[in-house]
Amino acid sequence: MTLLWIPLLSLIGSVISAFTGKLSRNQSTFATVLAPLTALGITLYHAPAVLAGETIRYSLAWIPSIGLDLSLRIDGLSLLFMFMVCLLLYIHVIISAPMTQWLSFIAT
Fold first, then answer.
1. In which band, very low, low, confident or very high, does the pLDDT at 68 lie, cut at 50, 70 and 90?
2. Which of 16, 35, 41, 56 could make an S-S bridge to 74, C-beta 3.0–4.6 Å?
3. Average model confidence (pLDDT) for the chain?
């Protein structure tokens, strides 16, 4: 069931981002980043098993009358791509910060 939350949290993050227009920049960023960080946490939870060679699977009967299922899997390659997407999110948050904050990230 936890694999189903990874794509759902991405969609939830998009919806949250659409409704944070009246908040300040920091509040909007914090609210928007919560969903992808939770998805990253779920990914990190499954990482040791995947790195040991296991494939994590989840299947849900979507339209059982015609035998159509929703199947989600995490293997080594998909784990790599999930980490790359999370890295791009981190880079985006750093670059969208004001220049003084961005320079402080570089200096440390």
1. very high
2. 56
3. 80
Can you tell me the distance from the alpha carbon of 73 to that of 79, in angstroms, rounded to the nearest whole number? 10
How far is Cα 17 from Cα 4, in angstroms, rounded to an integer?
A: 21
> Where do the domains of the chain lie?
2-107
Note the helical H segments in the chain: 2-18, 25-51, 76-96, 99-107
Token pair of 80, please?
């790599």
Q: What's the rounded Cα separation, in Å, for the pair 107 and 29?
A: 22
| Integer angstrom CA distances of residue 58 from 4, 15, 46, 88, 93 | 8, 25, 12, 26, 31
Q: What is the pTM of this model?
A: 0.72
